UniProtKB/TrEMBL annotation:
The keyword Membrane applies. InterPro entries: BT1, FBT, MFS_trans_sf. It is found in: Membrane. Belongs to the major facilitator superfamily. Folate-biopterin transporter (TC 2.A.71) family. This is Folate-biopterin transporter. Keywords: Membrane, Transmembrane, Transmembrane helix, Transport. It comes from Trema orientale (Charcoal tree). The keyword Hydrolase does not apply. One of its GO terms (cellular component) is membrane. The chain crosses the membrane at residues 60-79, 99-118, 130-149, 155-176, 197-217, 223-244, 283-304, 316-335, 347-367, 452-472. It is a multi-pass membrane protein.
């Protein structure tokens, strides 16, 4: 079957089906949803999921919900809180050291181009996505179980296991991201919807993860709680067996050596990144993250200190993060309902400005000005967390949509992984930069005298990012950014005959 026939097979049935499905559901529910606002709120998300499932393969939608909801949302948020307590209470290390360790969690995410190339270039028994979901599940389960059952581990061994769990999440996410990138190219009008689905699931999963983390860390201990994280990766193993994927077949003269495929993929990446339309926004995404230095560990140690800080309990710390995760869903809804039609440059400028202003709430809290204003610590920290989460989510979503817009067809998995690697390098720089500032200003487990200065430096750096906004294109979020020839499979594709994951309605297969 040639590429034109394949395109026709994918495009035409999905278009016809989407119209039929969507119009039918709209007709049957219009009266109920317009007359009863409560029913509309309840029914609308299901109609939205039905619309996505009708235009895309339902197993793909299931995979997005599973990876972003249960793995990236629940497991990762649970992991972040419990691992903080693990280093603080079990390993008893300084906050600046924990900040550096947390930066090492980003190493598997920096390696996203490697995972992306593996899924694009190295199929296993003819499958390019399924085996890597299984691999991620095995790595995650073994890493979590080792920390829980290994007793008092050496810090290096414990760090290796926690990095292993991070790698499991990264491999699962890069595999599903390849599918998302392909669909964002083939169905440009659904790109924003797919990102909204990803981050809504992530926020909902994080809500449950954060809420459970403090309670379980208090009752089971940090080490026992980390052991519970061996269970969610089993879902990835299940996904590897149930997600629909068309088996890759090559014959005779069409067979290409793996090394040739790898060379073509790397060549396509190099060709794409040279375009100013691509490298400029990529540079902005890195600098906007790197310059926003992370002070999380310093604040966490201060939060839980009985002398210098407010001495929040484990349960309350989990509740704080859970409430923040709830409001981050509001950030997704705000973006989906009101901001997804704004040009990239406009929305990123506004949210970065808000991000800098919101950071000043941390400064007010550390200096205890909230008490001078008569606002209790418990109330103020919840307000600060909610505002921060909403703005952070509104800041991330357009950058993710922008990333999908920069991917060429044929190597979308590898190139999207490269862009996520750039983001991870930014996060790594942010964590290590924050760790160095904490160390230089002598913020320790018991001395928080200069923590306010660390927060102030971080906020000023957030405002400095506004000077780089010229790197972002002025185009709308639904317009094509990269040159049109990169959207042709023949220009960058490593295999014109293979489809990575068949993202078409089931009756069109």
């Amino acid at each position: 079957m040639d590429s034109n026939e394949t395109t026709a097979l994918i495009d035409k049935p999905s278009h016809d089906l989407s119209e039929t499905k969507f119009d039918t559901s709209t007709t049957t529910t219009t009266t109920a949803t317009t007359t009863n606002p409560f029913v509309k709120i309840v029914v609308e998300p299901f109609q939205w999921l039905q619309m996505l499932s009708s235009q895309l393969n339902p197993t793909f939608v299931f995979g997005v919900i599973l990876v972003y909801g249960f793995i990236q949302g629940f497991s990762w948020s649970f992991f972040k809180v419990v691992s903080d307590y693990y280093w603080k209470d079990v390993q008893q290390v300084q906050p600046s050291v924990v900040q550096l360790y947390a930066g090492l969690y980003s190493v598997p995410w920096v390696m996203k181009p490697v995972w992306g190339l593996m899924t694009d270039v190295f199929p296993v028994k003819g499958y390019r996505r399924r085996p890597y979901f299984v691999l991620a599940g095995v790595i995650g389960a073994v890493s979590a179980a080792t920390v829980a059952l290994g007793g008092r581990l050496a810090a290096a061994v414990a760090l290796g296991c926690l990095i292993g769990f991070s790698a499991a999440v990264a491999i699962a996410e890069v595999t599903i991201d390849a599918c998302i990138a392909r669909n964002s190219i083939q169905f440009r009008s659904l790109a924003s919807d797919l990102q909204s689905l990803c981050w809504f699931c992530s926020s909902a999963g994080a809500l449950i993860g954060y809420f459970a983390s403090g309670f379980l860390a208090d009752h089971l201990g940090p080490q026992g709680s980390l052991g519970l994280l061996a269970a969610p990766p089993a879902l990835l193993i299940l996904l590897g067996f149930v997600i629909y994927e068309q088996k890759t077949t090559t014959t005779g003269c069409s067979e290409i050596k793996v090394t040739d495929k790898l060379g073509l993929a790397i060549g396509g990446i190099y060709k794409t990144i040279k375009f100013p339309e691509v490298w400029k926004p990529s540079l902005y995404m890195y600098l906007s993250l790197a310059l926003s230095i992370s002070t999380h560990e310093g604040k966490f140690y201060w939060y839980t200190n009985p002398n210098a800080g407010p001495a929040f309990s484990k349960e309350f710390v989990g509740i704080i993060y859970a409430i923040g995760a709830t409001t981050s869903i509001l950030g997704v809804l705000i973006y989906h309902k009101t901001l997804k039609d704004y040009p990239f440059r406009t929305i990123l400028f506004l949210v970065q400005l808000l991000y800098g202003v919101a950071g000043m709430l941390d400064l007010i809290f550390i200096l205890r000005w909230n008490l001078a204003l008569g606002i209790p610590d418990y109330f103020f920290v919840v307000i600060e967390e909610c505002v921060s989460r909403i703005i952070t989510k509104m800041r991330w979503l357009p950058m993710f949509v922008l990333s999908t817009r920069l991917c060429p067809l044929g190597i979308e998995g590898s190139f999207f992984a490269l862009l996520m690697c750039i983001d991870s390098l930014g996060s790594l720089s942010s964590k290590w930069g924050g760790g160095m500032v904490l160390h230089v200003l002598h913020v320790t487990r018991t001395d928080f005298t200069n923590l306010w200065l660390v927060i102030l430096i971080g906020n000023l750096l957030r405002f400095s990012v506004l000077a780089l906004i010229f790197l972002i294109p002025k185009t709308s979020q639904s317009e094509v950014i990269i040159p049109s020839d990169l959207l042709s499979k023949n220009s960058t594709s490593i295999d014109d005959q293979d489809e990575n994951l068949e993202q078409v309605p089931l009756n069109a297969e």
